Amino acid sequence: MEEGQLGDISPPAWRLLRVAAGYTQREVEREIDDFVQAHISMLEGGNRSLSAPRRRMLFNLYAEELTEVQAQVLIEHF
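The chain above was modelled as a monomer; its predicted structure follows.
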């Protein structure tokens, strides 16, 4: 997925990607340095966006656990 497309992922889709990949917000916080649960909550709640590099790190973490088709379906339909 290209950088520009990551900015188009909706807050509900970010949450579904995380859950489908099998992560809690706390587990993401432990997996990615300098990420705190509040960043994830704000992104998933639509209250704040993350920088492009941080969105890429988060997407890559989730994508490791999902097939390309699974990720695409969640992004396109939510």
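The mean pLDDT is 93.
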